[in-house]
Amino acid sequence: TGAIQLSLLDETNLAEVSSDLYPGERLVVCRNPAVAAERERKRKELLAATEAELEKVRRMTEGPRGSLRTAAAAKIAERAGRVVNKYKMAKHFDLRAEAGSFTFERKADQIEAEARLDGLYVIRARCEEKRLPGPASLVRAYKQLKVAERAFGQIKGPIEIRPIHHRLEERVRAHVFICMLAYYVAFEMRERLAPLLFADEAPQMAADPVAPARRSASAKKNAASATTAEGFAAHSFTDLLAALGTLCRNTVRIGAGGHTYSKLTEATPLQARAFELLGVSVRA
Question: What per-residue confidence (pLDDT) applies to 41?
Fold first, then answer.
């Protein structure tokens, strides 16, 4: 709509604009070069694949052995339509089907217009400037929503809060509250057990908020060697919980009498280190 000159994004990756279409909202236009390159690559591949299939349809309408040389325009159009719908490229091609004839060409202007928007997205927010000053703060706040999205995906995962169906509102609220507490426990455990996990203990804060996050050198080393700095095998959080779950409390009975006592299995070095990081003392 002309709210921003796209050439401005050649110099910076984000810019805050305003528009009459969204009164009272802050709009931040962002451009991710990595996403732009990936979308350009995909579009080129899909256009080439579509053209190759459409060329087959065109050859079917030519020559004495063409299966569509005497077909009606509707049948040829149907065959070509299956091709462009398969690759979702119908909007980028001009198709002309007649009885026994078929031609096609790219819509160059439309393809070029779409390419200009590669890697662009807009963040809409009603947050006041004093709470999140500047467009960079808005982008960082938007990216932090991934934490909430991850929580919804994991809230009933490794902790295994079983699904319970409620009918009363206060019970629903109570169940959600318990799930949130469980996620908080898992969150704290991940933070403390980070030296034993594939997790990045020192994630780098990019100066450019639009740029993709980069892992620290130590995290890359852990991932490559599958070994932590302390020499333990690196684990996912779920696998580490399973490893801790092998520590058992056995009830030992002496002879035929009724005297019993509890005895823990001997903790492995990994288990001992994990409980040390958690600040938990395991007793029989």
Answer: 95
